[in-house]
Amino acid sequence: MIDYRSVDCAFFENDDFCGPVRVVSAPQKHRERSMWSFDVETDGPRLRVSFFGPHPSATKDWKDLKVGLRLHLKGVIRQFGQTLTLSKAQRIPPLLYGRVIPAYRTVPKIITGDRLRDEIAVILDDQELYSQALNILHNRLGEVSPGHEALHQLLQCLHRPCSSDVFSWAIGEAKRLSVLAILSRASTHQERIEPHSRIPIDWFGLMALKQKLPFALSSSQESAIDELVDILDSERPLRALLSGDVGSGKTITYALPAVGAWLAGKRVAIMAPNTPLATQIAREIKTHFSQVRVSLLTGSSEGETPDNALLVGTTALISHARRTGWIADFLIVDEQQKFSLEQRCALANESTNILEATATCIPHTLGMLKYGGMPVFRLQGHAKKQIVTRLVGEPEKALLMQQVEQTVKAGERVMIIYPKQAHDESDHRRNVRAAAERWSTLQPGNVVLLHGRLSDTEKTQALNRVRLGECPIVIATSIMEVGITIPKLTLGIVVSAERYGISTLHQMRGRLAREGGQGRFLMYVPFDIRDPELSRERETTIQRLRLLEQTQDGFDLAERDAARRGYGDLLNGAEAQHGKSATPFLGLALEPHDMHRGFA
């Protein structure tokens, strides 16, 4: 918002000035610089105004300057010696003087802020166009619209406010209505009836499946399964999140309802982000539920996929669905933060029941949990563990070596993760293969290398050597993030941690102390984190990484991350999975604190 009303200025340093002036001197050019100055007369003392340009005639605001010209200026009073100057001087168009004008953002390559202001002014002054605009806004707000007359008053206060207080009130009211619109739309979506979505699961059959398991389910697992089965047996499509950290038993928790739905004759698919995890899920279902026909579908799968199988796979499932028209009745998306919204919906329609599983959900999903009525089932870990997490800067890198040596001497395992696997000479220090060679020199006979380009046999052999204790140190890429369990793994080091997202780092941390106990997770960044002259980008990076020092709970971490990044577009369900949410008022966006204030 820009206030063009006259200001009662005392002409002290840093005072705001806005008012009429008269030019009393012709523009004079400064030596060796393209800067021009001229003097103006005000109701008080004279002011000197400066601007840059090859010549006044080549500028937008000052091309008609001449002695005696009367105009309106806005700026800030500065004093240099005995001379008062008007800093950041802005020439006010006569039609705008004395008014409070909203500032409109420029949309790059589409429209400038000034052009947008002019277009809005045309709409406000044209009765037919304005009526259409009111109808559009009324429809966007839906059930929470206060009506055309109230919207008319609100639009006038937003675009033609009489004061800054009125404008602030209008912004707050527009945000309040927007939050109500989001809540209303989410509630309508959650309560919609889709008779074909109902999946009646045999309770007695499910109990028999549970009893055959070689382990007991936790109370949180039992509760989640019971509630999921209840929702599946209704005519309201399931849209829910299963949240649990590594080791909490997410797979068996969603596998039981999935198997129950498959036994009821429904089409069931489980989508995972990579082949090792998809293979592990398929193997676990086959092991515990031998009567189920499971088909694993990955990028390397060959042959026809049977129609009556429970499908487990990677994004290859999407290609299969597009090729055959296959749509799931029940879709489970494991590690949902790894998939885009389009990928998560490719196997579904309006009747599909969708359960997303993760340790750290994306901000958009968290927003739907908090404000969209989406249910969440939180699992508690089986093993009690305490992982000390610390951010380490370049001056402290000797600490990494000490920690590795101490851990190996104690008979425990170490994982050190590097971001690159290609042999890139320009970034030798962070290359995983070069790192493995350096660590092998420091710890001869104790190091194995693990990355995605190894064959499945080579990966298995490397992991077995670590698990058996033959080589206690594994140098790896982010392949360690999911689906890998190593006994006695108590130290994790991530090199160039600034390159990874919060969710990925938390998943890496989850590899530690899987059986319980103590662990250490060190995030190394190649700069001094205590440097008082850090760039803004690096300061933001440090703030982001320190979130992991504050909590070990994945759901709590997701909440902190969403508060920092925003929930994304909650109104339209668009692809934006973080950032500000769109609203029915174009150009107005909602941040997490706006949602919280409006919801309260």
UniProtKB/TrEMBL annotation:
Signal peptide: none annotated. Keywords: ATP-binding, DNA damage, DNA repair, DNA-binding, Helicase, Hydrolase, Nucleotide-binding. Residues 231-379 form the Helicase ATP-binding domain. GO terms for biological process: DNA repair. PROSITE patterns: HELICASE_ATP_BIND_1 (PS51192), HELICASE_CTER (PS51194). Residues 403-563 form the Helicase C-terminal domain. One of its GO terms (molecular function) is DNA binding. This is DEAD/DEAH box helicase.
